[in-house]
Amino acid sequence: MGLDKWIKTEGSEKKPEKKEDGRSTRKHKTQPIEKKGEKEPIKLTKFVLICSKPKCKYKKVLMKKELSEKDRICPRCKNEMKVQ
Ligand SMILES: [Zn+2]
Questions:
Q1: What does the domain layout of the chain look like in residue ranges?
Q2: From CA 46, how far away is CA 23, in angstroms rounded?
Q3: What are 8-28's pLDDT values in tens digits?
Q4: Is 51 helix (H, G, I), strand (E, B) or coil?
Q5: How far apart, in whole angstroms, are the C-alpha atoms of residue 70 and residue 80?
Q6: Could you tell me which residues are beta bridge partners of residue 45?
């Protein structure tokens, strides 16, 4: 278990190449590449909201995980907004 933790720490950090370690040269091709971008903890969705009232047509764009009830209400006329 202790070893597992050590490997995880090493993998997440950028470490300089060990030149003295012969194995690192051999392992080079099979080295697992961890892409940090793939594991984003917070995934945001783009919401385009347009007021359903034809006279208002207030538009707003939100970047959120999910919409709340408050987000769906037009700040101008308090009407319900549609998600595009
Ligand atoms: Zn409105």
A1: 2-36, 45-83
A2: 46
A3: 655 555 666 666 655 555 555
A4: strand
A5: 10
A6: 64
Quick one: how far is CA 16 from the chain centroid?
27
The neighbourhood of ligand 1, an ion, using CB within 5 A, equals 51, 53, 56, 58, 74, 76-77, 79
Query: Could you identify the residue written with the tokens 């047509």?
Result: 57
Q: How many angstroms separate the first and last alpha carbons of the chain?
A: 49
The position carrying tokens 């993998």 is 11
In this predicted model, what pLDDT tens digit does every residue of 23-76 receive, in sequence order?
555 555 666 766 666 666 778 999 999 999 999 999 999 999 999 999 999 999
- CA 62 to chain centroid, in Å, comes to 15
Alpha-carbon distance values, 8 to 2, 36, 62, 73, 82 (Å) = 10, 13, 35, 45, 45
Kindly give the distance from the C-alpha atom of residue 11 to the centroid of ligand 1, in angstroms, as a whole number: 50
CA 63: distance to chain centroid? 11
